[in-house]
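Render this sequence as a predicted structure.
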Amino acid sequence: MDGLASAWDPAPVILIGAGVVLALFVQAFVRLRLRRRADHAHWSRPLLFLIAIALGTLPLVSPLDEVGDSYLLSGHMLQHVLIGDAAPALALVALRGPLLFFLIPAPPLAALARLRPLRRLLAFLLQPVTSLVVWMLVIAGWHVPIAYDYALRNQTVHDLEHLSFVVAGVLVWMQIVDPARRRRLRLAQRLGYMLFLSASGAVLAGLLVSSTAPLYPAYAGDGPRLFGISALRDQQLAGIVMIAEQLVTLGACSYFFVRARVHIEPRRAAGPVLVPVLGGRHEL
């Protein structure tokens, strides 16, 4: 893992990116409130979004990053589920409805809307099946031991790994939360989609918990063990972290779906420029 220690530090870029995203959210929230659309810009939204940004940023710039990279697989797994699952889910819940369409100001959004290749790419990626396949390839591919260990030795590859988790998480949670009200999936289908994701994650978690030998050589060396946790116990804890995260996600999403049954926000038009950027027509 010496390669990571000598490589560039991505923390400044991550913090700047988080600041830019927060600034975009603030301007979207203010613009929507100024249009007297407070019903779509409740004050709970900034809190949810701030938590999402914290969950997507702190694991990458806090001591958890060093713990996960150099000592504990369980720490690295916690980092991954936070940035690739919890953060995208909360962010999209916070942005659901017209607020999503105010996130990018009109001038740059108009420029993006004119990029037909980008629109076609987004339309393709936001197909439910495509999003699911991308997520499965990302999760399965990076958890192959040889790929996992290689990413730990190369900072650039490691950064790409983290970015791919975020992108895959956003794609599948776009299908579940449906913040743009694309309605590609009915409510029951979205619930089934979420259950399939949880079951897929449980397969990997079960493999980590039930294995009788360490699967990742990078964490199985003879170096000092943080907190005295053995490599095998650390691997089992990594599986438990995944299972715990899946249970929390299931509970939170079940609550969200119940609320959606009881209280459906009224459909609103969000603005003509934003529609093509998301790859199709959307009713709000």
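Summary. Residues 31 and 37 are 9 Å apart (CA to CA). The radius of gyration is 20 Å.
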